[in-house]
Write a structure and sequence with these properties.
This protein is α/β, with parallel strands linked by helices. It is 41% helix and 15% strand.
């Protein structure tokens, strides 16, 4: 039997590789982005209640009305945009499914999609699986966007721009000026914008999350993607949602219904109840900033150089003062010989740019972070 892969260059993701290596070598896993602490008991009890009450069958394809209604309220209070819960919000099986369904619905053969490296590893394959052409543009040395370079790369085939703020893996964030510039470019060239905002609540140092939903002209041509897994420390539940204008949402749902149809019913109902208390999500920035600051304090005096993290639950560390090995080799050595697993960021670049930087996840218990940092300080 002849098999011709549509994406033959795609292997096992770096997250799977490094997490397996951490397990194999009994290393502290600061690689894959998931917490090692429990989620709120309130959510567990809510899910349990709805399961016991019999809410265990298919949810409506777009999501339960209860959850979509609450999300609409949260969007308005957070970003000042009124959205219709019936026609502009779709509940998905995690943010990755949102991203795939959006790209599948709107990208066709020959369409170019601009993305910024280092970029999350699902963007490029999703574009190529749908016949599109990924256009990779490297971020600046400070992990910002050079908008003049973006303009220079736009062609008559450009269909979409993908942004990610707060940014994985760098922890940088886009400013209001960035979104206004993107709005001008998107309107001038009639582009769609896919905005990956899964770390929206994890913003530090008094900054404000600049969602595409804050900018009316931009919101009218954008898909804003969010994640309950990232927000509420439950990555294994694979629960997210996408907000987009009604005409765009109609097309997303055409794809979504044939990818998963609908997602977990009792969790949707539990999330609807949980979101009714703003304290459950408005305090997350300070919660994770304390973890970031704890991590930075614990590595003080080490030879690693921190690179500012303004959001997400990732911290980049430069190891140039320790070694000039390529980052993949350094990450492997750190895991195997020193028992701390991280992620090399060159794997997020199409051209494998290597700045001798590793990504560490600080969404961990303090004792986990302290143990890892004792090892890092000794290098």
């Amino acid at each position: 039997m002849r098999i011709e892969s549509k994406i033959p260059d795609v292997g096992t993701s770096i997250f799977t590789v490094m997490s397996k290596m951490a397990l194999d070598y009994d290393a502290i896993n600061l690689s894959q982005g998931f917490p090692d602490f429990m989620i709120d008991d309130v959510i567990i009890e809510l899910v349990h209640r709805y399961m016991r009450e019999g809410y265990n069958q298919y949810a409506p394809m777009p999501g339960t009305p209860e959850l979509r209604n609450v999300i609409a309220e949260v969007v308005q209070s957070s970003f000042g945009r009124r959205v219709d819960p019936d026609t502009e919000i779709t509940i998905t099986s995690g943010a990755t499914e949102s991203i795939f369904s959006v790209i599948s619905a709107f990208v066709t053969t020959g369409d170019e999609v601009i993305m910024f490296d280092p970029s999350y590893d699902s963007y490029d394959p999703a574009v190529r699986l749908n016949g599109g052409i990924p256009i990779h543009i490297n971020l600046t040395d400070s992990f910002g966007i050079d908008w003049d370079l973006v303009r220079a790369r736009i062609t008559t085939s450009t269909r979409m721009v993908i942004i990610n703020t707060p940014h994985n893996p760098s922890g940088s964030i886009l400013a209001e000026a960035d979104l206004l510039e993107l709005e001008r470019i998107a309107e001038q060239h009639d582009l769609l914008v896919l905005s990956d905002e899964v770390y929206e609540r994890l913003i530090f140092d008094g900054a404000t999350h600049q969602s595409v939903l804050r900018f009316p002209a931009l919101a009218n041509r954008s898909f804003a993607v969010f994640s309950f897994g990232k927000t509420f420390h439950a990555t294994g539940w694979k629960m997210g949602y996408v907000v987009a204008p009604a005409a765009l949402t109609t097309e997303i749902r055409r794809t979504h219904q044939f990818v998963v149809f609908s997602v977990n019913t009792p969790i949707q109902l539990a999330m609807a109840d949980y979101l009714r208390d703003p304290d459950h999500y408005t305090t997350l920035g300070s919660f994770y900033q304390r973890k970031r600051d704890f991590f930075l304090n614990e590595i003080r005096g080490s030879s690693f150089e921190p690179i500012a993290s303004r959001g997400s639950y990732f911290q980049l560390l430069s190891y140039r003062a320790i070694s000039r090995d390529r980052d993949v080799a350094m990450a492997e050595r750190l895991t195997k010989e020193h028992k701390v697993a991280s992620i090399p960021i060159s794997v997020f670049y199409k051209d494998h740019t290597d700045h001798n930087i590793l990504r560490f996840c600080f969404a961990k218990k303090e004792e986990t972070l302290a143990k890892a940092c004792r090892i890092l300080r000794a290098l």
